[in-house]
Design brief:
Oligomer: single chain
Helix content: 25-40%
Radius of gyration: 24 Å
Distance between the termini: 65 Å
Largest sheet: 8 strands, mixed
Mean pLDDT: 89
Structural class: alpha+beta
Shape: globular
Low-confidence stretches: 366-376
Length: 471
């Protein structure tokens, strides 16, 4: 048997299901192959409030809201020598989910949108030909081929498919187990630093707690399962926030999972893209892995739609996709390093010292902050380091060429700010120019408040500088 489709997605986790669902919404023929039967247990149960716009775009916001997941009421931190309670910000809370149920919700939505789901089934090594891909697939009862123009690899960090990963952090291993919920353990994620390790724990739907300990992988080298269990229990007993779990019944064994941040360095191709942990993973300290993977999946759908609809924009779309992947890893490497550095200031062990800075190849240019307050009568000019170039910009369901701003102080090229094209705004100006006149020049498209915020952002990043400064 042969199944013909435009796009074959291998892997039905959040990234694969989100990409398949979005592609189906865009009118594409999609086949998704998932190895396991759902629901299945998986870590990554904490979702930040920023997940809601993605769920809304995918049309599953209401379904997720009614699925019985816990609404996270902030977090509790014991870090850098202090206790801190952080409340939930904004109108939307974070979520603490059962990943088996959450992943099943997304996969059912993809099926309802028209995605052909083959599950449980295993995809074997795909073969390229002139028209695309042939992917051998085997279920418990039959073997067949899926023929597709584009292959989307969403099979997680463990599978093959010709990947080349590069470490984006120091090695990290998570030991974890599920526990009956202790009395008074509310719906707040708990994060705590230890001597040479750190903890994460949260209440999940169904009255269970996932308690995790993040350690150097070397500390587990050569240990038997029983020894790893004892190490986990001994470390858990040292935690102020999670040790109450030990007074309850443990549900299932002590498990381990690689928590090292990685990035897949093979460039995306016109017929092959990767999403989720097949593409990148960030430090678990951010608790944003699932949200970032789903956001990337939505971008992948726009890129694939561009490759199929407007192939003349393929290079722009692929460059856009690769740049966004690197940006995610670089940004979160810096954020995690900042948190590790704060703990290192009060606990100078090698564990914290090694993680207090991003790896050299991920270090971003340092933003220069000017001490001078922006004044409306200040004469400004454009920094000589500023470049306006044509690059890929996401516009609805496609990647199209657009004008973007490049500068060493920016982590990546920026196309829009406050809903306006920065390139077009800057092209309208003559230099030198007073700040008040710049705001007036933009008044036909921007109100004074938005124009002032954009001007302040350009000043803050040293894109606009004093006219007397030629750098």
């Amino acid at each position: 048997m042969i199944i013909e489709t435009e796009i074959c997605v291998v892997g039905g986790g959040p990234a694969g299901s989100a990409a398949a669902l979005r592609l189906a919404q865009l009118g594409r023929r999609v086949c998704l192959v998932e190895r396991q039967t759902f629901p299945r247990q998986h870590v990554g149960e904490s979702l930040p409030p920023s997940i809601w716009p993605i769920l809304n775009l995918l049309g599953v916001e209401e379904t997720v809201a009614q699925a019985g997941f816990l609404r996270a009421s902030g977090s509790i931190l014991h870090w850098a020598g202090t206790f801190e309670r952080r409340g939930a910000d904004g109108d939307y809370p974070g979520l603490l989910v059962d990943r088996g149920q959450f992943d099943a919700v997304l996969l059912r939505a993809a099926r309802a949108a028209g995605v052909e789901i083959i599950q449980p089934a295993r995809a074997y090594r795909p073969m390229r030909d002139r028209s695309g891909w042939e992917i051998p697939v085997r279920t418990d009862t039959e073997a067949f081929q899926v023929q597709a123009r584009i292959l989307l690899d969403a099979a997680g960090r463990q599978a093959g498919l010709g990947r080349r990963f590069r470490s984006a952090s120091q090695p990290l291993l998570a030991l974890y187990a599920y526990w009956q919920v202790p009395p008074g353990f509310g719906p707040q994620a708990r994060v705590e630093a230890g001597k040479s390790h750190w903890y994460w724990g949260a209440l999940l739907p169904g009255g269970v707690v996932n308690a995790m300990v993040f350690v150097e992988p070397e500390s587990c080298t050569g240990l038997s399962p029983a020894d790893r269990r004892d190490l986990y229990l001994n470390l858990l007993a040292q935690s102020t926030l999670l040790s109450p779990c030990l007074e309850q019944r443990r549900i299932g064994p002590v498990r381990r999972v690689d928590a090292t941040s990685r990035i897949e360095v093979t460039p995306p191709a016109r017929d092959l893209l990767r999403v989720g942990e097949a593409s990148f993973s960030v430090d678990a300290l951010s608790s944003q892995g699932v949200q970032l993977a789903m956001g990337q999946a939505v971008q992948a759908a726009a890129v694939i739609n561009t490759l199929l609809d407007t192939p003349e924009h393929s290079e722009l779309a692929l460059t856009f996709y690769a740049d966004r992947q690197f940006e995610r890893v670089q940004t979160h490497a810096a954020l995690s390093a900042d948190s590790y550095a704060r703990q290192h200031a009060v606990s100078p062990s090698p564990f914290w010292a090694e993680r207090a800075y991003p790896l050299d190849w991920l270090k971003s240019p340092r933003t220069v902050h000017s001490p001078e307050i922006l004044r409306n009568d200040l004469a400004l000019t454009l920094s000589s380091k500023t470049r306006l170039i044509t690059s890929g910009v996401q516009v609805a369901a496609h990647i199209e060429p657009g004008l973007v701003l490049k500068h060493p102080n920016l982590h990546r090229p920026v196309a829009n700010l406050e809903g306006a094209s920065l390139g077009l705004l800057l092209q309208r100006l003559y230099w030198p120019q007073n700040a008040s006149k710049i705001v007036a020049c933009w008044s036909d498209t921007l109100d004074a408040e938005r124009a002032a915020r954009i001007l302040d952002w350009l000043w803050h990043h040293r894109i606009l500088i004093p006219a007397t400064d030629r750098t």
